[in-house]
Structure formats: C-alpha cells, structure tokens
Amino acid sequence: MPRTTTLDCPGCPPLRALTFDALGLIKVIEARGKGGGGGGVPKVVERWGDPDASKCLVSASLIDRKIDPLLAVARKNGVIEILNPLNGELFVSVSDVTNAGVRPEDNAIVGLHLFRKQRLEVTLRSCSLLACTTKGNASIKTIDMADTRADSGAPEVWKVCASGTISFSEVDGSESYALFGGKGVEVNVWDLEKCTKIWTAKPPPPNSLGIFTPTWFTSATFLSKDDHRKVVAGTNNHQVRLYDVSAQRRPVISFDFRETPIKAVAEDPDGHTIYIGNGSGDLASVDIRTGKLLGCFLGKCSGSIRSIARHPELPVIASCGLDSYLRIWDIGTRQLLSSVFLKQHLTKVVFDTNFTEEEVKHNVVECDALTIDEVQIADETEKPPTKRKKTSSKEHKEGKKKKKASKEKDVTKKLKSKKRSKSQEHDIVDDDA
User: Fold this and answer.
1) Phi, psi of 389 (to 5 degrees)
2) Can you tell me the mean pLDDT for 255-270?
3) Residue 344: how many CA atoms within 13 Å on its side-chain side?
4) Does 184 or 388 have the greater pLDDT score?
5) Per its UniProt record, what InterPro entries does this chain match (predicted)?
6) What percent of the chain is predicted at pLDDT more than 70?
7) pTM for this one?
8) Is residue 79 classed as helix, strand or coil in its secondary structure?
C-alpha cells in the first residue's frame, strides 16, 4: 500500500502557487490566511487547459514582477507557450525550431528560462527565452508577442553535448551563465553571451575495487543565484555533489542520501542550505558547506518527488511529484503545513510571489467538475483516516434503558411460559386421578 502522512496540518501563510501535471493542466492554488495571518488552507481556484497527455508540461519559467508578469511553459509535443500567470491568457505559442526532422517526444524540452534582464531592456511586447532539449540542442530566441507567428528572427542554436541525454538546465541570477547535465553528460557551465563552454566537471575516480560509476546527473542548481562558481548536483546513484568552478573539476564535497536517485534539488537564499528530494519520497535539508544532514521533513511522501520550490520571502518550500500531492512545508520546523491532492502526476511547481490576499478574488473550482479523462478521483485535501463517531451521554443512557426494557420483557415472557407449562402438567395429573 502507498505510504501517506496522517499528520495534523496547521495551515500555511497566504501564498499562490502554480502546478503543472502530466495531462498538460496548469492549476492555480491559493491559501488565504485567517485575518491576514497563518492558518490558511490552500485550494484550487483555477484550472487552465484541457486534459491531453501529448501536452504534458515538462518545464516552466515565471517572471513574477509586478509590472507585466509572464509565464513560459514547454509541452511534450514541442510547443512553447507564453501565458499571463494572473489569468492564464495565451499570448503566443511557438514550436521548437531545433526539432527539425525529429519527433518532439524523442527530443523533448527539459529546460526553459525566461530572461528577466532582457525583458526589462526590450519592449514589453517582446521576450527572450532559453530552451534546451534532451539531445543537447540549446537555443536563445526572442519572441514578439504582438506577432502570432512569433518569427522575430532566427534563434541562436548550439550543442551543449556531443552524446548522452540532457536532464536539466539552469540559469544563474545574473542570467549570464547556464548549467547543463544529464545521463552520460558531465555537469558543464556555459557563458550565454559568447555561447561557449567555460567549465566541465571531471568524473570521480574508480573506487577501491576499480569499479567506475557511470555518469548520470538528474538535477542541479546554482548554490547562490549571485555566484555562478558553486554548483550543487544530484545523481541517479543517490549522491549529492558540490562543485566549485573556480577551484577544481572534481567535487569539493560528495555524500550519499538514502538509497534511491536524487530527483530534485533547490537552493536556499542563505547561500549554504539546499533541499533535496529523491525517488522514494524523502525530503531533507542539508548544510552543503559540511555535507551535514540538517533533518528530514516530517511526513513521508508516497511517491517520487519531482520538483521543489523555495518561496523567496516566506519561510516555506513546496514539493510535488508522482503521488499527485502539492505539499507546503515549514523550513524551520520541517513540519507539513498543508497539502492538496491534484489528481494527476505533477511535474513542476512555482511560486507567484506577487500574490496578496487583497488581490483579485477567485471562485474556488470544485474538483468534481473536472473532466472524465482525469481518472484519479479523491478528496481535494489530504485527510487522516476517519474515526468512529462517539455517542453522546444521552444516546448512551437511552440505549441502556432500551436494553434493560428488552431484558425485562424477555424475563416476563419466560415466567409466563413456565406458569403455563406448570398449569398444563397439573391438569394432566388431575385427569389421570
């Protein structure tokens, strides 16, 4: 049976999150605190798109500025869409040009990033994004949102690997450097302005038995958005590695975490704490300076964790994955604050930091109104096992009285039957006399 948590959830502070799932749906989850404080219960307030497995959302990037925010999503069929994250309005959609002659499913987009800096420099009707596919085709393209054909110039395309499969791509805070890696591809850092590789990791040496571990990176992030020199990566053989680009090519620190592949890694703004999630649902925080495990988050997830997001202002993180739950955690106590069941396997979660309780009011969407294609049906929130209802004292007394009365009736019936039998025996004796 799947392992689920039955911990009491105190609720979370006011926040807004967007989740992306295997059927291509975008669901907006909002929590509104009681009286402006904590204790809010997150609920699904909007759902964008129609269920279609070919439109599975594989990557997303959000610009959460107050002025003209944007959301970019990459789908399994090779289409990139630019949306309004406030209401789900589609501005423009464009096909991935690097997939010429190849099925999109065979060369899916695994990394997507909307440039904030370039967004400020160009007109509000244009945006630039970086996309990378599993075969290592990276491209930077400027999209004119006023033109539905989105043909505002040929993109700049280059290869980030000669062989292997790319699993992720990340961009640093200055948006000048990008990080790539995957199965058979060592972690490497590129200068985006020159489109040149500036550093590549070196595989660890064989162990004492001479066994060499194949390269397989599953996730990575820059330890600090302001410093591209320190990189944290997770591997398929449950290792977490810290690289220092300015020091050496081999890991500075490397340690194992549990016994299943690392599936998600997220950094904390403090510059030395990371959050890791693995394929068996373990979620933990680690001080990467020493490799010390700070602690695991309370409550076991029942499926592989695929995405972790750290809120830039509130002391919370969000996690989601194959158990279809969005969970909000307190980073101080590592306690589960709240959870929402979203019916489908989740691929990614992002926070909308511009959300406030006084913003546009939404009507809560009832999940029972979803289409039949969403085959998983369950409650909207994760609940502990139901308990039997205790009877009140009055009901208890009335029950006792009824039992007593029924017993008295049974006794009187038995006495009457005995008297009848005795009188019958007496009549028989008189007849014989």
Assistant:
1) -75, 130
2) 96
3) 26
4) 184
5) Quinoprotein_ADH-like_sf (IPR011047), WD40/YVTN_repeat-like_dom_sf (IPR015943), WD40_repeat_CS (IPR019775), WD40_rpt (IPR001680), WDR74/Nsa1 (IPR037379)
6) 73
7) 0.80
8) strand
